[in-house]
Design a protein that fits this description.
Distance between the termini: 26 Å
Structural class: alpha/beta
Protein name: Type II secretion system protein E
CATH topology of the largest domain: Rossmann fold
Order of helices and strands: HHEEEHEEEHEHEEHEHEHHEEHEEHHHH
GO molecular function: ATP binding; ATP hydrolysis activity
Strand order of the largest sheet: 9-8-10-11-7-12-15
Keywords: ATP-binding, Nucleotide-binding
InterPro entries: P-loop_NTPase, T2SS/T4SS_dom
Family: Belongs to the GSP E family.
Radius of gyration: 23 Å
Length: 413
């Protein structure tokens, strides 16, 4: 195998070197303040979601997560590492003298000149203290269903869930799949003056005018379950529970959905059908699942082809078979790939969109869940009733020229 760098690696190196040069120049001539300010400014410009500062034996490794992928930016010298870590901890109101225990902090949007909040987490490693900064979502983006990547049919289905007079809507998927963004969009859809809305979150990711948002605090025993009990006594129409993590919260949320309240929440589950088994494992009877659940939305995020460097792409026979199209149809399709440019960090991708499946709990599906049908049975029945699976949703986006087969395989396989 050749040790020579690939063309993509060379291109990626060019963008990284520009940012590295900028940071190195500041390291050499100024203190940690301007360096940290520039780092956060560039992270926002690149639409990064996380900043990782990992201690090494001889320095501090700095990486940015852009479109779900971590990119190496620079390794700061050891003498600069402590100052940068201290500067960030001070900004996040954390104890800079405590390096042995994990801490959580918060840099508010006023400090950041109204850009967005940043959540900061620290923890010890064998080489020193590690920091991860989570850049919270922009509350002005992805507030409507049309921005998420849903098909018209899926948008219509979710709107139907939201307009139901009571019951629960679940958004499911692994960490980083966009579940919270989808549930916030449902909350925005329901945010009307005649409605009483409350959220219970950890942390509060977006500030929404007209919604009573509650931050839980496990340190004082104020858990999701405890907060949910309190909110139920405050005459709500809609409650958003940031995440159902345990059996107690699941039971309270299900009961709320049965008593005339619309409940929105997220759950860790591989797909829509698997979420039903998670509820069963929480000890919730099938009758309560079918009576309380209006619908389940399952999703993943795929990277979009960069519009600046996209070029038409000819698929091989195997890829055509996977997509369910014939080679003759390729000339009429929009299938493309990105070659990599300065706008997309030389990856060929810029931005992300969702691929979804929506499972409405009604009719034959309701009967199947009541009789204890397996995941495979429920999935087969849902497909027969017209549910578009995530894979089918992803294939449609490849044919539409939104993403690539390689990206779809990376996310789903």
């Amino acid at each position: 195998m050749s040790d020579k760098p690939t063309n993509t690696e060379n291109k990626k190196e060019g963008r990284q070197q520009a940012l590295q040069a900028e940071l190195r120049e500041l390291v050499d001539v100024v203190g940690p303040g301007p360096l940290v300010d520039l780092l956060m400014e560039r992270a926002f410009q690149l639409q990064a979601t996380d900043i990782h500062l990992d201690p090494l034996e001889n320095g501090l490794r700095l990486r940015l997560r852009v479109d779900g992928m971590l990119h190496d930016i620079i390794q700061l010298p050891k003498e600069a590492a402590a100052s940068v870590i201290s500067r960030l901890k001070l900004a996040a109101n954390m104890d800079i003298t405590e390096r042995r225990l994990a801490q959580d902090g918060h840099i508010n949007n006023e400090t950041l000149q109204n850009r967005r909040d940043i959540r900061v987490g620290s923890g010890p490693t064998i080489h020193g203290e590690r920091l991860v900064l989570r850049l919270m979502p922009d509350h002005k983006r992805f507030t409507e269903f049309g921005e998420l990547g849903l098909s018209d049919l899926q948008t219509s289905e979710i709107t139907k869930y939201c307009n139901a007079p009571y019951g629960m809507i679940l958004s499911v998927g692994p960490v980083g799949s966009g579940k919270s963004t989808t549930i916030y969009s449902c909350l925005d859809y329901l945010n009307q003056p005649e409605m009483s809305l409350a959220t219970i979150e950890d942390p509060v990711e977006r500030r929404i005018e007209g919604v009573n948002q509650i931050q839980i605090d496990p340190k004082i025993g104020f858990s999701f379950a405890e907060a949910l009990r309190g909110v139920l006594r405050q005459d709500p129409n809609v409650i958003m529970v940031g995440e159902i993590r345990d059996s107690e919260t699941a039971h309270i949320a299900v009961r709320a959905g049965l008593t005339g309240i619309r409940v929105l929440s997220t759950l860790h589950s591989n797909d829509a059908v698997a979420a039903i088994d998670v509820f069963r494992e929480f000890g919730i009877p099938s009758m309560f699942i079918t009576d309380s659940l209006q619908g389940i939305i399952s999703q993943r995020l795929v990277r979009c082809i960069c519009e600046k460097c996209r070029t038409p792409h000819q698929l091989d026979a195997g890829a055509c078979e996977y997509l369910g199209i014939s080679p003759d149809q390729l000339s009429e399709s929009k299938i493309a790939q990105g070659t990599g440019c300065e706008h997309c960090f030389q990856t060929g991708y810029l931005g992300r969109t969702g691929i979804f499946e929506t499972l409405g709990i009604r009719g034959e599906l309701r009967d199947a869940i009541l009789r204890g049908a397996s995941q495979s049975e429920i999935l087969r029945l849902a497909s027969e009733l017209g549910m578009t699976t995530m894979e089918e949703s992803g294939k449609a986006k490849v044919i539409q020229g939104v993403t690539t087969v390689q990206e779809l395989h990376r996310i789903l396989v």
